[in-house]
Amino acid sequence: PLWVPDGYMLIDIRSSSAQEVFLNYSDGASSVTIQEVPAATQPKTSGMNPRLVRIGAKEFLVSETEEGWGLLHRSGDRVYLFQGDLAEDELVRMAQSLEAIR
């Protein structure tokens, strides 16, 4: 993402396959993991009370998790799954900043 909360740094990148990537960001106390996969894999958020958040034409599926929040965002042929103990609005802002890259 082009935007991350103040103090957050990319601490790890790993790939479990040629098309699946995991990015881990942390500020030393809190963290967020972004999983990027092809849209055809249909990942699901692991959380409670899922709800759809719309900002303009963009949709984000947000849910509560044991660690904090989960967010699922589809963009073109990719799906991004955010999970971590960031505030919901910060996860949405991170996901929105991916659009500027595409």
Write the layout of secondary structure elements.
Elements: E1 9-17, E2 20-26, E3 31-38, E4 48-55, E5 58-64, E6 69-75, E7 78-84, H1 88-99
Antiparallel strand pairs: 1-2, 2-3, 3-7, 4-5, 5-6, 6-7
With strands numbered from the N-terminus, the spatial order across the biggest sheet is 1-2-3-7-6-5-4
Structural class: mainly beta
- Mean pLDDT metric: 87
- Topology, number of strands: 7
Strand content: over 45%
Which regions are unreliable across 5 or more consecutive residues at pLDDT < 50?
none
How large is the count of helical segments? 1
**Main beta-sheet annotation:** 7 strands, antiparallel
Please give the share of residues in helix.
Answer: 10-25%
Distance between the termini: 10 Å
From the spread of the alpha carbons, the general shape counts as: globular
Radius of gyration, in angstroms, nearest whole number: 13 Å
